[in-house]
Design brief:
Blueprint: E1 5-7, E2 10-11, E3 18-20, E4 25-29, E5 32-34, E6 37-38, E7 46-48, E8 53-57, E9 60-62, E10 65-66, E11 73-75, E12 79-83, E13 86-88, E14 91-92, E15 99-101, E16 105-108, E17 111-113, E18 116-117, E19 124-126, E20 130-133, E21 136-138, E22 141-142, E23 153-155, E24 162-165
Parallel strand pairs: 1-5, 2-6, 3-7, 4-8, 5-9, 6-10, 7-11, 8-12, 9-13, 10-14, 11-15, 12-16, 13-17, 14-18, 15-19, 16-20, 17-21, 18-22, 19-23, 20-24
Amino acid sequence: ISDSTVINNTVYGGGAGLFSSSAIPVTISNSTFNNNRSNAQAGGAIFIDYGSSLTATDSNFTNNSAQGSGGGIFSVGSELMISTSTFSGNIATDSGGAVSTTSSTVIADSVFEDNESVNQGGAIQAGGKLTIRGTTFQHNTVSEGNGDGGGALAIYPAGPGVTCRESHNPR
């Protein structure tokens, strides 16, 4: 998917903008996912299932929502690479307002702002290896729920490791 806009889609499942459960890698560049809603599962904009992978570059994920985890992106058992992208105003009723992942994830030179979850990880909930470089987190919120926390990041369940370099969480 390149130079595209995916807007105002709704699904009673996962991934209102994109659902992938195949072993085919998915690449998104210079695209916008806006106001997509998953009304019953995870992945408001994108749901990437076991065996696939997702690379998102120079893209915007805004105002997407999930009645579950991953208001912007939900990735389970699939590698995730995000670079030079912005996640803003995404909401999840469980965890990971912008991104929820159980897989190896690399995030570089991106911005996460004004995302919200109910239980944990206002911006990101990660349950796999997580590497973050040159990324800004601001005004992300965990609103209520179990009180597990992590306004910007929640590493839960405990993954194999987290590396954070040159990232910013402005006041």
